[in-house]
Every structure is written in structure tokens, then in C-alpha cells.
Amino acid sequence: MDIKTLCLGVLTQGDASGYDIKKHFECVFSHFYVAGFGSIYPALTELTREGLVTCREEPQPNRAGRKVYALTPAGREAFEKSLIATPPRHRIRSEFFVLLHFAHLLPVARLRAVLDERLGDITRTVHELQRVMNECTGGECALHPAQRFEVELALVTTKAHRDYIASHRAALLQQVETAQPERFRA
Amino acid sequence: MDIKTLCLGVLTQGDASGYDIKKHFECVFSHFYVAGFGSIYPALTELTREGLVTCREEPQPNRAGRKVYALTPAGREAFEKSLIATPPRHRIRSEFFVLLHFAHLLPVARLRAVLDERLGDITRTVHELQRVMNECTGGECALHPAQRFEVELALVTTKAHRDYIASHRAALLQQVETAQPERFRA
DNA sequence: GACAACATGTAATAGGTTACATGATTTA
DNA sequence: TAAATCATGTAACCTATTACATGTTGTC
Question: Which of chain A's termini has less CB crowding within 10 Å, N or C?
């Protein structure tokens, strides 16, 4: 699934500017997709050209005008069709796992830093997911049942990942330290 | 990290042909990286041109000759340097999560199929990881401590993912079924 | 007789990332 | 006064995917 389709998806939840969509990617989508301005803005231009979204300019006082995009009926239809046709793939691209796989070629100090950095990242992800759950549990921005399922699934998976690293980190470092030659202690 | 660097990594574990490297990606690396022939063969050609690997042709009886690649000292050094400089990122790109997020726009039957397909995929992944663990626990192809850590981490994470889906699947489908309008029952 | 596995490669295309370019307002 | 947030966009580059192209051997 490409960024264009994902932008249509965001717009099913309400009109938004490119900047708003980027924030949506950072908050709600961050645990399963990444996209930067460099892909979002061209995507919106292209979608407008194709008639799947419309663009209105909202001038703001003391500020550059925002371009607010809205889904057209054709856009909604295209998104729904695309959704139904999308196979449920789930791919991981992880330099972290690469580093673990070749850790015997890495100084112990670097391995320790790698584990700590990963632990920091994943802790941030857990907080973000919990924030989404809490914010949307009561009030106005209710989650659909499947969205609740989605966030909880991400949460249990991420926590399992974090807990394994946290509880086996020390043992791994000790094992590697005793096994590796002198030059790698640095 | 690009495919070229990963090919160097595979070659630190012994000489191999492009075909061998592809198999390695499918078996050992499949849970954190994907690569096809279309990226592996050009990568090997380029690495040869750069002097990071050498290529010898091994003619086989009644069969097309294999091109076996070997790491040069420069290649090993380049890989180790690249390894130390690589930040431990871990990204997920998941159409499965996208489908969950927009499940309210999907027919229930399709959602059911999506969950089942995902469950099938993840079960295959678990089997593959368990195979790696078992094959390499005793005998000659021993895993390094960090590789054991790597596979076990992938295993606990993947199992947590699978178990959540398996135990909440039915409840989700029921909830969605009662909530969705008539036209989506199909 | 068909299909899977072995074995290598190219070319066109799609797709995204990074860096560049700009500038106002709000918060610490 | 420095940094973060708001706000949009382009261009060059890099990388990978897909489809194409070919042929043998072993297995069901």
C-alpha cells in the first residue's frame, strides 16, 4: 500500500492539511507505517490531479494559509476498493536484529549501547500506544472495536519485545563479554 | 542498511552463490529483512566491482555453473565498520494493521479472512523460528549467544502477537457483526 | 507430464528518502 | 534569544520491486 492510499484513509476521518496528515502518521500510524513530508505533499498534489480529493485554501490571521484537503466520493470509493483488495502483509525491516545477528563482530560496549537505545525507543512506543488507548477510551474520540483491537495487539506485542530485552540483557552482555577476545572489550 | 551490506554479512559466514544468499534471506533473515533475486544479483555484481568480494565460477556436472562469492579483507573491514555505524532501527510496515485500522469500511467476511490469513502467516513464522532454534541447538551449526537471543526475542514477540489474535478474534468479529450495517454482512 | 528446485541475470518502473529552500509565530 | 511548532513544497538521488528471459534436473 502506498502513501497516496494511506492519505485517502486519513481523509476518511475528516478533512486535513498535509501537516495534519503528517502528525497523524506520527501519532496514530507510527507503529505500523512511516511517511515524511517529502512523500505526503506530492501524494496530495497527485490525488488532487486525479480528482480523488479536493483542496481549499484556508487563510489564517498572521500565518501562512493552510491547504485543507477533503475526500471526494470518487476518493472514498477508490479507498474502499483498494482496502478490500489489499493483502494483509506485515513486514519488519530491522537493523536492530541485523546487529544482534552479527553481534560477535561488534565491540561489547557498542552492543550494550544498541540494546539500551532499542529499549529507549520501545519504551517510547509503549507510552505512545498507551496514550492513544487512554485518550480514546472515554470521551469524544472513541475507537472502533477493530481499532481497539489494533492498538491492544500492538501493545501486547511491543511489551513482550521490551520485557524480553529487559530481562535477558544483562545475561547476554555477560556471556558475550567472557566469550569475546580482548580487542573487543573496548 | 542496504542489500549490499547484508550480502557482505552473509558472506562473513562462508562463501556463497547468489542463490545461496537468497535462501539465507528466506530462512535465517526472513523475520527481519526481505530481498529478492532482483536486488541480490545486482548487489553482488557491484560489490565485485568495488573489490569487496571476489567471484569464482564453479562448473557443475550437467548443470549451469554457479558463481561463488567470497569476502575480501576490504569487504570484511567495510562490513564491520558499517555494522558499528548502523543505528539500531526497527520499523514495521504493515498492511494488516492498516486493515484493522479501517476495518469499519470492510465487509465482515473480508475482516475474518484477513485475520485468518495473518494467523496462517504468523504460524508459519513461528515454525520457521522454532526450526532455526532446534537445528542449531545441539550440533555443528551452533548459534552465537546474541543469535540465540535474537531468535528467542523474535519468537516471544511473534507468539505474543499470534496469541492475542487467536484469543480475541472471535470477540472482535462478533462485535463488528452486530455494529455494522446490513450491506456489510455479505 | 507437471511442478518444484537449481541457477543467473536485465530492464523498466515505482517508490520513497534526503536535502534543500523559506518564513512566521509561539514557548521556554 | 533560541528552539520548537506551524506550514508548504521541489529536486536529486537511491533503492528495490516486478516482470521478463532462459534452461536443466529431480520429484510426484
Answer: C
pLDDT digits (tens, 9 = 90+) for B88-103: 999 999 999 999 999 9
End-to-end CA distance of chain B: 44
Q: Is the pLDDT of residue A179 over 80?
A: no
Based on its alpha-carbon atoms, the radius of gyration of chain B, rounded to whole angstroms, reads 22
Question: Which candidate from B32, B80, B145 shows the least CB-CB separation from A175?
Answer: B145
- pLDDT tens digit sequence for A127-168: 999 999 988 776 666 889 999 999 999 999 999 999 999 999
Mean pLDDT of B40-61: 92
Domain assignments of chain B as residue spans, ordered by start: 3-85, 95-184
Give residues 46 to 105 of A whose Cβ lies within 8 Å of B: 79-80, 83-84, 86-105
CB contact under 8 A, A98 and B9: yes
Residue B128 dihedral angles phi and psi, to the nearest 5°: -60, -45
Is residue B3 scored above 80 in pLDDT? yes
The whole-angstrom separation of Cα A9 and Cα A14 is 10
Q: Do A99 and B118 touch (CB under 8 A)?
A: no
Report the top-level CATH class of A3-85. mainly alpha
